[in-house]
Amino acid sequence: MKCLQSIISFAVLALFGLASAAIQKQTHTKNFADHTQHGTPSLNREAAAGLGTGFGILGVLMIFSCVKIIMEEMWKHKDQNQKTQAAIQKFRELGLNQKEIDDEYDEIILYRGKTEEQAALIRAKRQRRGGAVAVSQNDQGEHEERL
């Protein structure tokens, strides 16, 4: 399908190109005379001042935009680092570590959608196996996406 679209696009472009060449050939006149009726173009003082002012203002605004973008990125990184440090401090205050959080999440995934009786059976099986959590590959993928 893509090949057919490419061929059609190429054919349309070729048609326009041929039509443009034919029109130019019909309307082009061979006139090699000097164009003395028009003087050589020059830039007067007002136009030069306007051109310089326009480019100057554009340059200043572009530099301002770049500086503003860089400053915002620096603020975002600083803010994110502060939030991360605050979260780590909160974990330490609560006495939590990553393994406990992961185990709690695995339990939530393990018991999701189960009735109380099914959850009790799973708890009993886990206690017999020494507390090992059996998490399916799908649930493990969800867990990794969360991290």
Automatic annotation (TrEMBL):
Residues 1-21 form the signal peptide. The keyword Signal applies. Residues 125-147 are annotated as: Disordered. It comes from the Eukaryota. Keywords: Membrane, Signal, Transmembrane, Transmembrane helix. The chain crosses the membrane at residues 47-71. This is Uncharacterized protein. It comes from Stylonychia lemnae. The lineage of its organism: Eukaryota, Sar, Alveolata, Ciliophora, Intramacronucleata. The gene is Contig7216.g7731.
